[in-house]
Design brief:
Bound molecules: hypoxanthine
CATH class: Alpha Beta
Oligomer: single chain
Strand content: 15-25%
Number of helices: 8
Strand order of the largest sheet: 5-8-7-6-9
Number of domains: 1
CATH architecture: 3-Layer(aba) Sandwich
Number of strands: 9
Order of helices and strands: HEEEEHHEEHEHEHEHH
Length: 270
């Protein structure tokens, strides 16, 4: 068996020693969006640092823990904070939590992030429903295939599940949201204005440093995926002020109430 699969099994064992909770829905909370976890009637909270071998996030705005509990009558597990490729982890470690939540029993995954707006429809504080992605980071599936969890050449035709996207659109009444393509860079530097012009020409509506690699691993292991970006700033060159970490966290935090409303409605209706 591969080292990656062994590590996954070891993390799974350690979580199962702490809780027997079986989630249906998994949620990854992006930068500044972690407060959503307060809506969960928690039955167990496990810090990433309590799990030997688990990648611990160093990014600002990421608390670094799993919250297991009920929300809108559904069994959910939320990740308050994720790890990013730019933190220096192997790409297999970046997606380990996704695979872990699938092995714990979840079958639907809601990926969220803060992103820079490229689309003309975007403005700070609005949301983007991810219709598809362009991944500029390495594939998390490179290396020996984990045949226990997925196939060698998975289709990426319907990464962000069409039926689930219809549900999100129905739940978004009164919330400013548009649907478009997300492009993932490795980061950690923000983009140049020339890169943003290129991404726009390629068809991207928003840019960020996460999510696409997680979505690839999620589809590989059999998750149905929803992706929602909180547009925290206009991408570089599209406004008078360049993006900053402070602005990203501030705007994502401010969007918290609407974000919670949307995600709660989606979970209720899945
Ligand atoms: N670029 C990349 N990642 C981001 C941005 C951005 O402008 N905003 C939030 N995450």
């Amino acid at each position: 068996m591969s080292k990656i699969y062994d590590k996954l099994q070891s993390c799974l064992r350690q979580i199962k020693e702490k809780t027997d909770f079986v989630p249906e829905i998994a949620i990854v909370l992006g930068s500044g969006l972690g407060d959503f976890a307060a809506n969960i009637e928690a039955t167990a909270v496990i810090s990433y640092s309590e799990i030997d071998g688990f990648p611990v996030s160093t990014a600002p705005g990421h608390a670094g823990r799993f919250i297991f509990g009920k929300l809108a009558g559904k069994r959910v597990v939320a990740m308050q904070g994720r790890v990013h490729y730019y933190e220096g982890y192997d790409i297999s470690d970046v997606v380990l939590p996704i695979r872990l939540m699938r092995l714990l029993g979840a079958s639907t995954l809601i990926l969220t992030n803060a992103a820079g707006g490229i689309s003309e429809k975007s403005y700070p504080g609005c949301f983007m429903l991810i219709s598809d992605h362009i991944c500029l980071a390495p594939s998390p599936l490179i290396g020996a295939n984990l045949s226990e969890i997925g196939t060698r050449f998975p289709s990426m035709d319907n990464v962000y599940d069409r039926d689930l996207r219809e549900i999100v659109k129905k739940c978004a009444a009164g919330i400013p949201i548009f649907e478009d393509v997300y492009i993932q860079t490795t980061g950690p530097q923000y983009e140049t204005p020339a890169e943003i012009r290129m991404y726009k020409a390629l068809g991207a509506g928003a840019v960020g440093m996460s999510t696409a690699v997680e979505a690839i691993a999620a589809v590989h292991c059999g998750f149905k995926v929803i992706g929602i970006s909180c547009i925290s700033n206009m991408a570089c060159g599209l406004s008078d002020t360049p993006p900053s970490e402070q602005e990203v966290l501030e705007i994502a935090n401010k969007s918290g109430a609407e974000f919670s409303k949307l995600i709660t409605a989606v979970i209720t209706n899945i």
